[in-house]
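Form 12-C: Joint structure prediction
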Amino acid sequence: MSDIQTYAQTNAPAKTGKIMLVGLGPGAVEHMTGRARAAIAEADTIIGYVTYVRLVADLIDGKEVIKKSMTEELDRAIEALDRAKQGKKVALISSGDAGVYGMAGPTFEVLFQAGWTPDSDIEVEIVPGASALNTCAALVGAPLTHDFCAISLSDLLTPWPTIARRLDAVAYSDFVVALYNPKSGRRTRQIQEAQRIFLRHRDPNTPVAIVKSAFRPKQRLEFTTLEKMAEADIGMLSTVLIGNSNTFIQGGLMVTPRGYANKYDVAEGERSTKGGEQAGRSLSTGLNGWLEAIRESGKSAAELAVEYRLPEDYIAAALAAGPEEDIAESAEAEA
Amino acid sequence: MSDIQTYAQTNAPAKTGKIMLVGLGPGAVEHMTGRARAAIAEADTIIGYVTYVRLVADLIDGKEVIKKSMTEELDRAIEALDRAKQGKKVALISSGDAGVYGMAGPTFEVLFQAGWTPDSDIEVEIVPGASALNTCAALVGAPLTHDFCAISLSDLLTPWPTIARRLDAVAYSDFVVALYNPKSGRRTRQIQEAQRIFLRHRDPNTPVAIVKSAFRPKQRLEFTTLEKMAEADIGMLSTVLIGNSNTFIQGGLMVTPRGYANKYDVAEGERSTKGGEQAGRSLSTGLNGWLEAIRESGKSAAELAVEYRLPEDYIAAALAAGPEEDIAESAEAEA
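Section 2 - Result
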């Protein structure tokens, strides 16, 4: 009787069901996290694409297993909600990270549609994992040491002009780019269009790596260039990594320098700071140094916009904000 | 004797030393992969930033441990090479993923400088982990379900105009953006400038999440908007996630819809395809549908460029490539 009263008095209902969105990483068991394995072990029901279910076969004995095909993300989320409402613990498993083009999005979309809130009786946990970006990068060298982005070439849910606009923007601004879903049996022209857009801004010799089935038995790496990218063997299970203007391939490895060469001269076992630069401080062409330089240049915002390939109104606004905004940090930098 | 001959006959020298670049994920032991733990156990020497060494204290008993401060990446790589040359197995440990703004870059830079090649007697292995992007996203909901990018606001090695150009490009083209190294004691204006650039293109109410020390004891989440972002509590250990134009915050969760609403009407437990759309196929506004629409519009490339916010020369080239390039896939799509 007192138990019943206590239950009734709490503001939140006791959690009964649970949905766990589990990222498996690349797929090889040794690259799963402890929490991912524990979440699968804890679950009553496992829902996932057939290939991923097979990867955790040793953990799912005696559990309900619902295998779904690739395109049924919403159905998987609906099934998960259905089981969780019955008080079950459900593991929705994805390769890579469940949050990156994975099941986390459709699951919350379905939950919100059904009127779910985080303080309802169904708990949701997301178990992070290494995404394709990270695992493919680990195999090819160190391509992602500088600013990067991920773009899916799938137009199943995204209008092409949105995708094209993103490709153009990041090609122009020199990101390292990972293309997800680059090609399928039906979608073969998207990669050609991506190449066409990139070639507007980038050197045809820009290094490109194509990684298929990373850390799985059929793993395959291919290095090529932007100019030859569209002719390469690219499929549903490939991730395409396009370097930035500093990325190079050496000894079968793709590496994007972090930028130490902007500040240091490095010889074997030794390094010295370049003239005008200080270890542990912003570059001389960092924000403060750049603001000072453009102020002192005597040039107009229009001239500076051309010189730095930045919008004229941004340069005008940064100049108008004046040096006072950075007094505090300048003082500290001189301490 | 025959053993020695066999050794001499192989083309590659036997590996003696080894450098393992190990990504720990967010830091909590349960989120490390099996391979990351095994690599640390296998190592003779552990090199890393003090905080990360502390996270694996239980695994490093009896090993040489070299703790380094945050700014000494090149020194850490030089030490690793030095030990590996002596035949030692060295684990260079990073939080997150060693490839994402991590130790993989500086290590290969130092190795190449020293004349190392992959077939030399020092083996290099990169052990992928979930990066800050993934772990922060897992805590706030599902912000990365659509195209995203990572930009570091640190100008210690990168000129500000490069960073500003990237911010402007991705703000314009509606990426979800993760800002790494958003602020430090010395660097306080960079986040203000990032906000200024984003507000040129994005709604001031765009959702922003700030995640500090994800999955660690001092973990802290804050939701705000683009307009108030620069006033939020942001530090060295924060990652800032800026949503795209569809991202919303509901029930304390930040979610970017994947785009199912473009194709389906979803009610609880049911879904139906919208008029003109087919399950498992490209959207009617996907590449082929869009090419057909612009061809049939009778509009000039200049007019279409304004309408779709794409470069005029790209539209002209896509039109000039003609429909023949996509005959194969159209035929298949109709099958």
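Section 3 - Comments
The domain at 3-130 of chain A is CATH 3.40.1010.10 (Cobalt-precorrin-4 Transmethylase; domain 1). The first helix of chain A runs from residue 2 to 9.
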